[in-house]
Design goal:
With 210 residues, the chain is α/β, with parallel strands linked by helices. It has helices spanning 3-11, 67-75, 94-102, 136-141, 153-162, 180-193, 203-206; strands spanning 15-25, 35-41, 64-66, 80-84, 106-111, 123-126, 144-149, 170-175, 197-199. Substrate binds at residues 25-27, 40, 84, 210.
């Protein structure tokens, strides 16, 4: 297949730069503790300095993979599929999610919302970032707002986006892992003073699982 043909199929969402896929326990947010099959799509230009998967940023180093093959693998393991990245909305998610839904799977996404929403989703976890702010269609459709707290100023950012999401969106504050010991007490105090929020922790890291 020529480079032009590969690019065309990537643009259509028929091929996706697959970084990794694995069956594990969801460690964060509203579905913490649930088994899920994770599909990590390469490519991200949001550029969070504390990102723990920087190897996902360069889509070119991850092999273009048939959406059909990704779906066949996913369907063997779990009824809950989590599409993550990188930033998966850099790519057209409609073909992949349509094929997953055809298998009667629950399809979740974890996204910064920096790109327009594509695909059909049972659960949208929006984790907005200051460098590239989320699009309105993601804000309007998010089921979960998960704001990463790295410093005190992030509480103001969290409140700004709590006002922008839909009224049914569940609100989470999650400490950035490298500063968790410093930020957890602040988050606990904040949630107790502002009970519309919930605490999210990266429990998979505490459990030492992928």
């Amino acid at each position: 297949m020529t480079k032009e043909a590969i690019k065309s199929r990537i643009d259509l969402g028929e091929l996706l730069p697959l970084m990794e896929e694995f069956y594990t326990i969801q460690g964060e947010g509203a579905h913490t503790g649930k088994s899920a099959y994770f599909i990590r799509i390469g490519g991200c230009d949001v550029g969070c300095h504390w990102c723990d998967v920087k190897e996902s940023w360069d889509a070119a180093i991850h092999p273009p993979t048939e959406a059909d093959a990704i779906v066949e693998n996913a369907a063997k393991y779990s009824d809950t599929i989590v599409i993550t990245g990188g930033e998966p909305l850099m790519w057209d998610m409609e073909p992949l999610t349509r094929k997953l839904k055809a298998k009667n799977l629950q399809v979740h996404i974890e996204t910064s919302g920096a790109y327009p929403l594509t695909g059909t989703w049972d659960w949208i976890c929006l984790s907005p970032k200051k460098r590239m702010l989320p699009k309105k269609d993601v804000l309007d459709n998010a089921h979960e707002l998960k704001v990463i707290i790295y410093n005190k100023h992030d509480f103001e950012f969290a409140e700004e986006y709590a006002r922008k999401v839909n009224k049914d969106c569940t609100l989470f504050l999650q400490p950035e892992w490298s500063v968790r010991e410093k930020m957890i007490p602040l988050i606990v105090d904040y949630v107790m003073a502002n009970p519309k929020w919930k605490v999210s922790l990266q429990t998979h890291k505490y459990l030492n699982i992928p």
